[in-house]
Amino acid sequence: GQIVYSIAEETERGASVGNIAKDLGIDAATLSARKFRMITGSSKQYFNINASTGALSVNEPIDREQLCELKSVCLLNYELVLENPLELYRMEFKVMDINDNSPSFPLSEYHINMPEFLSPGARFTLPSAQDLDEGANSVQNYTLSPDEHFYLEMQTRGDGSKYPELVLKKALDREQQATHRLVLTAKDGGNPPRSGDVPVIVTVLDTNDNAPEFEHSVYRASILENSPSGTLVVQVHATDLDEGPNGEVRYSFSNTTSADLQRMFSIHPHTGEVTVNGVLAVQRPLLEMLIEARDNGAFGMSSTAKLLVEITDVNNHGPEITITSLSSPIPEDAVPGTVIALLSILDKDPGENGKVTCQISENLPFQLKPSLQNYYSLVTSELLDRELISEYNITITATDLGSPPLTSQKTVWVQISDVNDNAPVFSADAFNVSVEENNPLGAFLYQVSASDPDIGENGRVSYVLRNSTVAGSALTSFLSMNLANGSIYAKRAFDFEQLRSFHFQVEAKDNGSPALSAAITVNVYISDQNDNAPAILYPTSQNGSVAVEVVPRLADEDYLVTKVVADDEDNAQNAWLSYHLAHSSDSTLFQLSPHTGELRTTRSLRSTDFLKHKVVVVVRDHGDPPLSSTVTVGILLADTLPQALPDFDDSGEAPPLLNATNIYLIASLACVSFVFAAFIFFLAVIRL
């Protein structure tokens, strides 16, 4: 809620403003019981509330001009805080201006020097009056005492402000009258109106008929409020059409510029540079000064320009955090949105530097919600859990929007009271167990673990296997479990070749009332052992006889004799097979591929080769240790399949020592040797 009152300044003490209980719809009889209090940032308490009737009255008269200076709207902000339940109301008092200040001029009298040769129409700037009142109660018009040589005319500057000018109506004659005494009157628009007078003394001079002229009628500048002494604000420039000393311009602050501003700033008389001369101890964001340019003629002429200096606020006030109300401890089952504390956060800087953002750590189950202006409510944002965190130190960080920003922190200690609300929690989403096959009976497989943050019986956890089947049999025929610590044991040996994996669920239950429970899936993976030797599928022998392969009598090189095919029931490297020749009746005739098991000839067969051969092939896996199997293959060199296979117990049968082919070869070699010897003998005879 918010309510606005209007009150005229200087209202006497005890005057009634309103009835806060009636205006806000509050039972006045409950104000004392609800510990009402008024909060304000002002140093004085201007208003009182009667605790019995709720009547709001003036405690101290208000001087609007002292309180708000030159602000167009003067507001006093109060907050009314009530407890049981906690409520906050905002009260705004608009202080209305009355015409209690008369216009005044900075000096008691003003002097103007005028050359006698000036033509009618010449203009001279007159001083502006100041009135602390606002609006219609401020200065509205000026009047000039009647004079045949002068009249008054109002002019408007570039920023819209008006000022009086003295206009020459009739040429002056110093010999007839050297001095003219005028009275300038400033009137405000109050009812009744107020006025202020100042004498204007015009001295008629001879010579120097041109006054300096500024480049701009209004100069604007902006500086930081913490600018050091010597900082350049602006450089003004005026020109004078006269020559010599009459055209030399000197700069100074006009007499209408307040003494405080002349102490804070200085102006170089020759360059026109305006610099900071001290600490800028002002509360107004815009300062107004008049700069005078005067020539060095015997009868110096001058003109003025307005300088508007905007004081840019520097962020030199940090936010102030005040805890207005706090509720602690709170139960852990408090619903989200429960109000814990009410905070007031203020920053004395104006503008963006006074705007504040407020936050707390993101990992806390609390949040800040804006309430009325400059107020925040600290509320729960989610369900609490005392077993996880029994108390919180909530650090509230307030940061303004200045550059660089300033930050303030306040810590609120909140305790959490306990309720029974936690089920057991496993340390993982699922457990994976690996066990080698052929394990001993009763072997320890795994220990599941669940934690319950509750205390006492509510935190004591027991474990049980949920009913299920594995490979058509009850789970309890495979496993057993320790109810107290969750250890799982094997009740039988596993065989990888029959069962490679299975899963089951374990339930953890606390001892609370009612009991809370949780379940988890346990995946059991059975790893392989090298417990199966390779099985040779081809070639096979029957009744212990040797497997026989028939090869053409004159087969070519790389002829495929046979391919040994084997299989291993194990897995992975335990089933990776390689083939090796353990024995061969002729090691130069056959070769075996270690990867494919193909038995091939290493060269073309000859008629002189044995007709029978025997090789022993070893098939070996890559287990640790490796297992192997062997097969004996009998090889018969024949072009046709014989009716009866020979016996391969011996290594082979030798061919005749001499045959027709061998005789032909011996004869050919002898003839070639004889011809070569005869040729050598013939060459020797010719040489001799």
UniProtKB/TrEMBL annotation:
Protein name as annotated: PCDC1 protein
Q: Specify the taxonomic lineage.
A: Eukaryota, Metazoa, Chordata, Craniata, Vertebrata
Give every Cadherin domain span: 6-105, 106-214, 215-321, 322-426, 427-536, 561-648
**Which terms are listed as keywords in the entry?**
Calcium, Cell adhesion, Cell membrane, Glycoprotein, Membrane, Repeat, Signal, Transmembrane, Transmembrane helix
Q: List the molecular function annotations (GO) for this entry.
A: calcium ion binding
Q: Quote the cellular component terms of the Gene Ontology held in the record.
A: plasma membrane
List GO BP terms, alphabetically: homophilic cell adhesion via plasma membrane adhesion molecules
- Tagged with keyword Cell membrane: yes
Described function: Potential calcium-dependent cell-adhesion protein. May be involved in the establishment and maintenance of specific neuronal connections in the brain.
Record field: transmembrane = 663-686
Note the Gene3D superfamilies from the entry: Cadherins (2.60.40.60)
List localization entries.
Answer: Cell membrane
Topology with regard to the membrane? Single-pass type I membrane protein
InterPro entries for this protein: Cadherin-like_dom (IPR002126), Cadherin-like_sf (IPR015919), Cadherin_CS (IPR020894), Cadherin_N (IPR013164), Protocadherin/Cadherin-CA (IPR050174)
Keyword rRNA-binding in annotation? no
